[in-house]
Request: fold
Amino acid sequence: MSIADESERGIDDRAAALVPGDPYASDPARPATSARGPWWRWLFLLPGSAAVLYGGFGLLTAGERVPLPAWATWFVGSALLHDLVIAPVWIALGWLSARLLPRPARPAAVVGVAVAGVLTLIALPYVLGPGADSDNSSFLPHDIGRDVLLIDLGVLVAAAVWGTVATLRARRAA
Amino acid sequence: MSSALDRLLGARVPGPPETLRRGPFRAGAFPSPLHSERRSARVGLWLGIAFTVCFVTGLISHLIQNPPGWFVWPASPGWLYRFTQGLHVATGLAAIPLLLVKLWAVYPKLFEWPPAGSASRAVSRVSILVLVGAAAMQLVTGVINTAQWYPFGFFFTTAHYWTGWIAIGAVAVHVGAKAPEIRRGLARRGTQGAVAGLTGEQAAERAAVDDAAETSSVPRRAFVLAAGLSVGAVTLTTVGQSVSPLGQVSVLAPRQPGVGPQALPVRQTARAAGVTDVGPDYRLVIEGPNRLELTLDELAAFRQRTERLPIACVEGWSAEATWTGVRLGDLLAEAGLARDTEVVVESLQQGGLYRRSTVAPPHARSPRTLLATGVNGSPLDPDHGYPVRLIAPNRPGVMQTKWVTRVTPA
Reply:
């Protein structure tokens, strides 16, 4: 049962009879009873909750250094950047590759696009932001926009070669 | 007590009508067997280690800059802060692909149906928003900050510090909350731990998913390779900003050791600090029982020392240089102060949060702490703090005050 199957199933109470004897079992109808074990979870839950509260208290008392609407915008916005932009783009690429690429080439495509994509993401602030400072020759000594395009190109070419070789081998073996 | 809580948290919450179950919410929308408990737990372990490293190194940097009474940061070894802060930034960058892989693995959970089947599911989902929001925000704003881009509307370091507590706390709460999934996901397949808390039927379903992951069109090996190579590529293209021998390789790093005026990178230029007209009327004042007011020539008459010390910026880059100047301790002694007097060093710079810094006793008495007038064989460039700058071992760059004009006992 994958995570997707779990999410589809909604509430899975098949292990309910194991609670409370098995500390790792859970019964959705008895969440508090299920949560008692294993004992070591409390070593994480209690200090973790305290740290979250401490951080929240710090933000609430930071005054004008951290206006809460601005903080909340970045807090929720960063999560949404993944959920509504990065993940859908990645899934759309996967959908395309499943239709356009032969099966043996898909691992190469995933690896190549993952590496190139992550490098592009990391380079983006340098390209989209204010960029190089004419006063400060030591800041952004490389043309990061050009460099990342060249690296991405190299990575994607390598992935294409790998994917082609894998496809040809699979055909020969078939 | 727990039965009342059970009734409250376990109460079924009615879901939206089935007709709304479309797109990513529909059954079978995420067919890959890599969306599994096992993959999530394993990449989660790496991500948890990365966040712990970032939290500890970030806390160290915070404590050095805002030391409470109990905190003492040593002056030796001189490279330690360079290491901890380089590690902070390199680990944060490496955490970006790890977080993306982790979020991909659990992405179907976002489209759980019904969206919150019980009160406890609703609580769990809100806690996940806190976790993902804090983790993503730390990484997104962290990278943007190293690009010297400040579109946030808040002061970065304060928000990064407090959100860091939320992030590490939310990670710990998540580990506690997902204890059964983590126990099973990290256990070797086929062992007792891998089926802890499951019925035989559930265990067989999970085993089938993990079997399918070995042979699916994108198999487990490709998944692990994509994650590993992404981390490696990010690290290799950026870590040269703190690991000098890789400086030439790291073409996506915002600084390269060896590049800058006098072969040394600069964070804040003299022009940005508004210190461009240092004239012959410049004096270095050391307050004390025997107050000193020194011209540059008088400063040059003190015994000159040379030290090889790194500049280690909070943004992660660092570079070693050969500094020449007068020992801070020698000047304090000449002004009638003990060599380990805690002092405040002030800059000619008029504004800014970092125009002054405190030199704690371990650094004040260190023989390697200089009020430097030269670097790499020539007088300081204005961007490196001409005429005089502080350079001490094992200290963040923002505390290596440039354009120094006054030293006062704290």
In short: The first helix of chain A runs from residue 3 to 9.
